[in-house]
Amino acid sequence: MDLNSEREIILDSLQIGSELLYLTKKEVSAAGLSISDILELTRNALIAHGTKNYEMPAKIGVHPFREVFFHAMPAYVPSKNAVGLKWIECYPSNPEKYKLPQTTGLLIINDVLTGCPTALMDATWITAMRTPAVTSLAAGVLHPNATTFGMFGCGVQGVEHCRFIVHTLPKLKKIFVYDVNPLATDRLIKTVQPQIEVEIVHSDSPEEVAKSCEVLSSATVILLEPLAVVKDKWLSAGQTLLPCDLNTFFDPATLRKADKYFVDSSEEHELFASMGYFPEGLPAISGETGEILAGTIPGREDDDELIICSNIGMAVCDVVVGKEVLMQALRKGLGRKLPL
User: Fold this and answer.
1) Are 39 and 166 contacting, i.e. CB atoms less than 8 angstroms apart?
2) What is the DSSP string of 260-282?
3) pLDDT of residue 20
């Protein structure tokens, strides 16, 4: 849809410059974007990033406590007329200490022509959707014939990864899942298994997952000091590792010895490294996820390559998905108008 058509839809519902649309998490979800929609929107955002058709500074943030961060994530994607900013935090101890989510946040979407804010919405649903979309798209291009997938972490991200991955790995036969809390693993299987045809296997140890799967992903916590739960000796040539938690879960030795180490954003990984999140040093970067999807650099070139593709989340994906959430919410009459 071109910019003029989009603005007509917005102007039919909003007085730009005088009001914006506020959307709760429930309303963001009710906008009705399907997994296929989110995969396509995320693919477009990643390709824009990979072809340098975007503007997105590395995340800036503040850190009230050692293991806590708040990030401001602005981005502009011209091909989608999408501009905005996500303000998000990560408090790893929230679930245990306060019975609250580890991550909460808000997303602002602005009008490209005037700069006025047009929407303020919950960002956690979008984050929960675009993150597994990136993992799944990367898996599809780096290991398209994989028959096994392993998921470490069975929270919200684990659930969505298992739902998304079946859309990009057409030969998938089994998904192995592991969490330090077995009840979380059981909940994931109970939730996801009725929705997909691929068998989900409850694993009792990370070693079992690591040794059983061609493609592995982790969505746990992001910590300064690596946990190195998945030992290097458990991994082998030809596997594809897709961490969403920097260098927390996999052995740093594996990151350094991988044949190729891709990232979603070189700038952001270098920023995290400067903050101490890679105490043994950031591995040499082979390229970015969007470049592989855009076809500007090769991905896997040999069946025996051990490949790591670290995706920690980019604002280009948030604003592109968020812009479409806004458009669908306006069509469906969701949310409430707030005066500026």
Assistant:
1) no
2) EEEES-HHHHHHHHHTTS-TT-P
3) 97
Whole-number CA gyration radius for the chain: 20
pLDDT in tens, 180-190: 999 999 999 99
| Arithmetic mean of pLDDT over the chain | 96
**185: Cβ contacts below 8 Å, ≥ 6 apart:** 154, 177, 178, 179, 202, 203
Q: How far is CA 7 from the centre of its chain?
A: 28
Residues 6 or more apart whose Cβ sits within 8 Å of residue 327: 1, 6, 9, 10
| pLDDT interval class at 66 (50, 70, 90) | confident
Q: Are 25 and 126 in contact (CB under 8 A)?
A: no
List the domain boundaries for the chain.
3-126+316-339, 130-314
Residue 140: which residues within 8 A CB-CB, separation 6 or more?
168, 169
- Cα–Cα distances (Å) from 130 to 33, 136, 154, 161, in that order, read 11, 10, 17, 10
Rounded to whole angstroms, the Cα distance separating 112 from 229 reads: 44
pLDDT in tens, 159-171: 999 999 999 999 9
CATH hierarchy code of domain 130-314: 3.40.50.720
The class (CATH top level) of 3-126+316-339 is: alpha beta
**Cα angle 322, 327, 328; round to 5:** 95
Please name which of 266, 257, 298 lies closest in space to residue 141, comparing C-alpha atoms: 298
Q: Encode pLDDT of 100-131 as tens digits.
A: 988 899 999 999 999 999 999 999 999 999 99
Strands (E), 7-55: 19-23
For residue 262 the two structure tokens come to 């891709």
**CA neighbor of 213 nearest in space, from 197, 230, 229:** 230
